[in-house]
Amino acid sequence: MSAEARLSAKLAEMGINLPAAAAAKGLYKTVIFDGHLAYTSGHLPVTPDGQILKGKLGKDCDVEAGYQAAELTALGILATMKAALGSLDRIRRVVRLFGMVNSTADFDQQPAVTNGASQLFADVFGPEHGIGARSAMGAGSLPLGVPVEIEAVFEIEQ
Q1: Hey, what CATH class is 3-15+33-156 in?
Q2: CA 119 to centroid of chain Cα atoms
Q3: Cα 50 from chain centre
Q4: 33-80 pLDDT, tens digit each
Q5: Which is nearest to 65 in space by CA: 74, 54, 76?
Q6: SS3 content of the chain, % helix, strand, coil (to 5)
Q7: Could you tell me the residue ranges of all domains in the chain?
C-alpha cells in the first residue's frame, strides 16, 4: 500500500481531511531541499477548521491533548510535503523529527507528547520508514502560545 493510501485510511479513521499546506508566517521557507533530503521549518498545530491550538503542557493541556496537537502538527508537515512534492509517495523515509513542547518546568512527558507526530508518520510510511531519529524537548514558550512545534527531515526520491 502506498503512503498516499495509508494516509487516506488514517485520515478516514481520524474523521478529518488533510489540511492545506500552510504559508510561511515570516521570512523563511516551509521546506527546503538539499539533494535527497527535505528539511521542514517548524510547523504548528492547526485544526481542520484553521484554528491554531494554544496551551502549555502541565498547565492548560494534559499529555493526551499534547499528543493530539503533535498529531495535527504532523498532518501539517505532510500537507507541506505533498504540496512541495506532488505526492507523499516520493518520501523514502523519515530521517529525523525535532519536537519542541511548550511546558511548565516540572512537566517531563515531552517524548509522550511528541509521540503523536511519530505515530502518525509510522502509520503513514510504515514502521521501517516512518520512524527516524528524534529529539523532544521542553520549552518555556513557543510562537503564538502553541503547545508544540515540530520540524522534520525526510529522505526523498529525486
Answers
A1: alpha beta
A2: 10
A3: 15
A4: 999 999 999 999 998 888 999 999 999 999 999 999 999 999 999 999
A5: 54
A6: 40, 25, 35
A7: 3-15+33-156
Q: How far apart are CA 28 and CA 10, in angstroms?
A: 30
Taking only the tens place, the pLDDT of each residue in 92-133 is 999 999 999 999 999 999 999 999 999 999 999 999 999 999
In the DSSP assignment, the letter for residue 51 is: P
Q: pTM (2 decimals)?
A: 0.94
Give 98: exposed, middle or buried? Use CB within 10 Å, 0-12, 13-18, 19+.
middle
The candidate with the shortest Cα–Cα distance to 102, out of 42, 37, 58, is 58
Nearest of 71, 127, 64, 125 to residue 99 by alpha carbon: 71
